[in-house]
Amino acid sequence: TSTGVANDTIQLDYFNGSSTVTTTRDITGTGTLPAVIVISEAEPYNFGTVATGSVREHVFTLTNTGGSTALTMSGGGVAPPYSFAGGSYPGTGGTCGATLVPDGSCTINVSYAPVASSAGDTDSIDIDYYDGSISQTAFRGIIGVAAIPALLSISNGPSYDFGAVSVGQIKDRVFTIINSGGYTASSMMGGGLAKPFSFAGGSYPGSGGTCTASLASGASCTVVVRYAPTQAGYKYNDALSISYDDGVLNQTVERDLTGSSESPAVLELSISGSHNSVFTFPDVTIGKGNPELATITIKNNGATVATLLKAENGFDAPFGFVGGAYPGTGGTCGANLKSQESCTLQVHFAPKTFGHFSDTLAISYYDGSKKQILLQYFEGEGVKPQANPMSQAAL
After folding, report:
1. Does the pLDDT of residue 391 top 80, yes or no?
2. 39: part of which helix (H) or strand (E)?
3. How far, in Å, CA of 242 to CA of 212, rounded?
4. What pLDDT score does 268 carry?
5. Pair type for strands 171-179 and 135-147
6. What is the pTM (predicted TM-score) of this model?
7. Residue 87 DSSP symbol
């Protein structure tokens, strides 16, 4: 009933037939506390969220905090989806056996392998042993949540077409990645892209993209893919791929990509069929003749619509657009000019004094990738009226 060394004497009195005799035997013994097995981890131990079809193991430490050796140790209590790893006590890699000395420790390995989703699987690890006096059982509650594996999808399916893009132009597209599974996707990486496709900025998830290496269940993130063709007249095909660990296996989800390329808008100017960069108006007699008119034709020889077409500068007198403003009265040019189509500008020369005049018209447009400028130079002479010969004779 107590610990430590105890001493005593056994005394035996008996009558030997003639007298009373006494015999004694000294005895000693050491009292110890019973064995007490303690299982590590807080109560209950939480395996966390585990994907169905996968296995998560945990090693528990058993310690004998009592004073006696624990005997006839064995493990039990766990039932599917829990088990001792490998199928039997102490579990694969576990070191526990049938005994455990005072202050000694050993390990058991328990696995959680759910096959169906669950809001909470509960169980208990039971370690049976003899404490030196009676049979005992040490317990540790365990709990885990089972979720279906991560399942990623990419928006804009089944195939995304960037359309026709001019050489030298870039077009970015934001794709949304959604995890509709019950488990966090991990080890996410983007790939599969080859020129003229790439992640914007050069690497996953692309400039402005929000995806990282993991994506929680029910969450979404974005990647930004860039299409930048360098040769005209081609049809390109590729696939955006996102690889990830679904909690059980490595998986890959893809989105097919396509795009075509075309040459940029190329505008040219001509006046009366001439492409001379300098146009000379006929001489205008001051005070006698009407203004000289010129029709400028602009043609788009490229494969892309020219946009933002406008005059970058105004004329200085005596040059100007007919009526005073671009494209001139009777002119047909607007802000856009389709491939292989033409439009016109109406320009006049109306000097009020004699002399030589020149000016430059700058026409700007966007060719599909960048701004371009066309220049047309004008010159003309304002001349004095000739004297009347008859009037001279009269003088």
Report:
1. no
2. strand 37-39
3. 11
4. 95
5. unpaired
6. 0.68
7. G
